[in-house]
Amino acid sequence: MRALIAFAAVAMLAGLIPAAGDAPDFNTYFVDETLRVDYFHVGHAAEELVTLDRVYRQGIWAGSRTHLIDPFNTGNYYVKVYDAVSGLLIYSKGFDSYFGEYKTTGPAGEGVRRTYHETALFPCPRQKVRFTLEVRGRDRSLRPLFAAEIDPAAVTVDRTPPAADATVVEAQISGDPHGCVDIVVLGDGYTAAETDKFRADLRRFVDVFFSLEPYKSHRDWFNFRGVLRPSADSGCDEPSRGVWRRNALGASFDSLGLDRYMLTEENRAVRDTAAHVPYDAILIMVNQTRYGGGGIYNFFCTFTSDNQWHAYLLLHEFGHSFAGLADEYYTSAVVYNDFYPAGVEPTEPNITALLDPARLKWADCVTPGTAVPTPWEKAAYDALAAAGQKARGELDARIAQAMRDGAPADEVSRLKAEAERQSKESSDKMDAFLAASAFAGKVGAFEGAGYASQGLYRPMLDCLMFSKGDKAFCKVCERAVLRVMEHYRE
């Protein structure tokens, strides 16, 4: 740890961290390949450590060759790569992680250790580099977490090509990967007999993706490829419902103990599958009818293929994983404790603690004449939301109990249909309430965001990141997404 702190201090004193606009030259420091660094992230709320697993050289570099230093200051972690000889920072990227979420949960707070497998990708260096990871403290400042010297020419660097066990589908190719946003859609819970369904679902979700701005107006900025490694079983695990499936990528409901949260802890399988194509972002499309998904910034996102909210799931979760957008809702159940510490400004672009209203991070977007903070009909909304959450929770519990007890299929189907109907009715009521507000369509600072009823604020009454349904990003979220899209361009 002392060596890492000394290294960072020397680099800063020597002026070896590039100034804005003074990017490292790609061809000087890198070759056009991807270096994949796998590591284990271990600990609990008060303990955190990293150990290396394996280093790989894989395929061409999919990212920009000009935008190598992350300008966004978003994410609870940062990977930073320094040239080992000069000490110059030659690559950086902010991200979040599964472990980072786990350490805010109750078990982590009680000292229960967990281990998660994670991956960092960056262009393959020409010579030795110092690979570092940094983590944010409660004050959101970055501090050293891990450092190791990596030699891309070492005999231990794995150069094994991807296994020939996957179907690759080029759904949309707009141009050179270096100048486009390259998205890989991985299928999970699709059997070999369901390969045609995977292809059809992929085409359907590409169309869904481009129905939303700012993607719609910049379709030619994106490449979409699908990769399927068939699963032995159709679907995915639903532990609280007593359902277990042999799915290739390990997607599962009940992640971190929340029934609708669907993630995978099989990171190696995910990365081995994605390695068949160049990629900047990973989407995991799970062959399931149930509502569920998740998104972790610059890590991956998941969504189910056949729920009535399938479009919302894809677009909302990708907002997290691609642009680092925060959840703006605050009435739904979550498992986090103190996810956003009081009195500290979040790094996400679409929520604020409003510590200094005169310096609101989206001040230039505020509708003229709108007060900051912005008064709205919050108490009435909260009452509606509470009623909907109560009904949903009761139905979900009945479904889970019926399935664990082996209830007749028609009874389970009836309960599931009732849950879907109730979900749509509740959503329609909430949409109508928000649309009738005097503040609908205005940008201000509306209290209630980031899982907190008080102390955090969102830019607009409603947004794709606030409530489910066929809706747009708010103006602040749309701008944030566009800025990230531009970062992947040459």
Description:
With 490 residues, this protein is α+β, with helices and mostly antiparallel strands. The protein contains ten helices and 15 strands. The chain has helices spanning 2-13, 26-29, 98-102, 106-109, 195-209, 267-274, 310-323, 378-404, 409-435, 475-487; strands spanning 30-44, 47-58, 77-83, 89-95, 114-125, 129-136, 142-150, 167-172, 181-188, 222-228, 281-286, 293-296, 300-304, 446-449, 452-458. A hairpin with a 2-residue loop joins strand 14 (446-449) and strand 15 (452-458). It is globular.
Give a quick rundown of the structure.
By secondary structure, the protein is of the alpha+beta class. It has helices at 2-13, 26-29, 98-102, 106-109, 195-209, 267-274, 310-323, 378-404, 409-435, 475-487, and strands spanning 30-44, 47-58, 77-83, 89-95, 114-125, 129-136, 142-150, 167-172, 181-188, 222-228, 281-286, 293-296, 300-304, 446-449, 452-458. Mean pLDDT is 94; it is low at 1-15.
